[in-house]
Amino acid sequence: MLVARSIALFVVAALFEIGGAWLVWQGVREHRGWIWIGAGVIALGAYGCVATLQPDGDFGRILAAYGGVFVAGSIAWGMVADGYRPDRWDVTGALICLAGMSVIMYAPRDH
C-alpha cells in the first residue's frame, strides 16, 4: 500500500510541477499574461508541498527518484498539451528513467 501511495504522490507532484512550468511557459513565451504565470507559480508551490507527503523521509532520495517521473511525465504532458510526438529514443529514455526511479525508491534496503 505504501508503494501505491508513493506512486500516486509522484503523479500528483508531476501534474503540479509540469503543469505549473507549462503555465509559466504559456504566460511568458506565448504571451498569455500574468494570470497564467501566477497560476503556474501557485502550482509549482503546490508541487513542493505534495513532495513532502512521500512516506520516505529522505529528501535526496525523493527528489532523485522524482526526476524519473518528471522526465516521463514531461513527455506525456507534451503529447497531451502540445501535440508532441516522442520518437523511440524519447520513449526508451523515459522508460530508463522510470526504471531508475523504481530502483531508487522501491529496492529492498537493509536498515
Automatic annotation (TrEMBL):
Its main location: membrane. InterPro entries: EmrE-like, UPF0060. It holds the Pfam family UPF0060. The keyword Cell membrane applies. Signal peptide: none annotated. The chain crosses the membrane at residues 7-28, 34-53, 60-79, 91-108. It is a multi-pass membrane protein. It is found in: Cell membrane. Keywords: Cell membrane, Membrane, Transmembrane, Transmembrane helix. Coiled coil: none annotated. Belongs to the UPF0060 family. HAMAP family: UPF0060 (MF_00010). This is YnfA family protein. It comes from Streptomyces mutomycini.
